[in-house]
Amino acid sequence: AQRVTQPEKLLSVFKGAPVELKCNYSYSGSPELFWYVQYSRQRLQLLLRHISRESIKGFTADLNKGETSFHLKKPFAQEEDSAMYYCALSSGGYQKVTFGTGTKLQVIP
Amino acid sequence: GAGVSQSPSNKVTEKGKDVELRCDPISGHTALYWYRQSLGQGLEFLIYFQGNSAPDKSGLPSDRFSAERTGGSVSTLTIQRTQQEDSAVYLCASSRDSGETQYFGPGTRLLVL
Fold first, then answer.
1. Quick check: A102 contacting B, CB < 8 Å?
2. Which residues have C-beta within 8 Å of that of residue A50, sequence separation ≥ 6?
3. pLDDT tens for each residue of B5-39
4. Which of B22, B82, B91, B107 could form a Cys-Cys staple with B35, CB 3.0–4.6 A?
């Protein structure tokens, strides 16, 4: 069964500090990985997906199949990055997407 | 085009009453999900519809919860005999296909008194 683990419920960093939100997954095949973000009083929305290999709002995430990880990184945190972040995995076919439990990022001014 | 819409946006009900929550997905999206988000908690998967396949109901917390999707479009989530612990934000999301990006609605905030 596929599983997504986000070990940190809350991550607090100072403005300007680097950020790394951890995501580990368990799935034997080739997954599609996503990061979703929910800002205060806004809808949950896609931040980035690994297949796109994009950098969105300064965030990047690299799929490491050896470590089964898809950590989200940003070199310099901004106050507007404060939000709830969810990692998600799709195994393809008609299987449902699996979400992690989320990490709340708090950027301290 | 319009995104995913949900109604009502807020619902206050008394314990023991039944409630129906509605989700209008993006037109043409074959996959539809319901999630629950309790205060300070993450996303809890409830049910997943994909095309004409039998729904994945593995996340429904009890038999008081049910959902249907009519004509492959609009979905309703029904909670019977509501309990206080059912109070949460219920989110609906749709995607073009099962593994594609999900588009979320604004949610229905349910409060059971």
1. yes
2. A32, A33, A34, A61, A62, A63, A70
3. 999 999 999 999 999 999 999 999 999 999 999 87
4. B91
For A94, which residue in chain B has the nearest alpha carbon? B98
What is d(CA A48, CA B85) in angstroms, rounded to the nearest whole number?
Answer: 33
> Min CA distance, B112 vs chain A (Å)?
21
- B104 and A43 in contact by Cβ < 8 A? yes
Three-state DSSP class for residue B89 = strand
> From the centroid of its chain, how far is CA A54?
13
Tokens of A81: 């990055």
Q: Residue holding tokens 């403005």? A: A15
For residue range A5-37, list pLDDT tens digits in order: 999 999 999 999 999 999 999 987 888 899 999
DSSP A64: B
> Which has the closest alpha carbon to B89: A56, A84, A31?
A84
Q: What is the CA radius of gyration of chain A?
A: 13
Nearest to A26 by CA among A50, A6, A3: A3
Nearest by Cα to A94 from B26, B96, B45, B97: B97
Tens of pLDDT, residues B57-99? 999 999 999 999 988 799 999 999 999 999 999 999 999 988 8
Interface size A-B, in CB pairs within 8 Å, comes to 57
Is B42 in Cβ contact with A99 (below 8 Å)?
yes
**What is the nearest CA distance from B44 to chain A, expressed in angstroms?**
8
